[in-house]
Amino acid sequence: PDNLQPLYEAIADTQPDLSALRFGAIGLGNHEYDLFCGAIRSLDALLIARGAQRIGERLEIDVLEHEIPEDPAEAWLSGWMAHL
Predict the structure, then answer these.
(1) Is the pTM here over 0.85, yes or no?
(2) Is the predicted pLDDT of residue 65 greater than 90, yes or no?
């Protein structure tokens, strides 16, 4: 998405050392598109390539399966926080 692109490009261009960064990742998408959750997958891969450590698994929410996307996100967050 447009609002995520500047962050992605800044990290890709400057290639900072992100080894001190720990992060969680949630993506929102529609499985009918070829690039389902492509933005979060790309950002996740870039952060890991720069040394960041993802905490837990990445959550990919399909808007066609979840009428209220916050519901699976809240469930994921509860488990994710246990990793902190």
Answers:
(1) yes
(2) yes
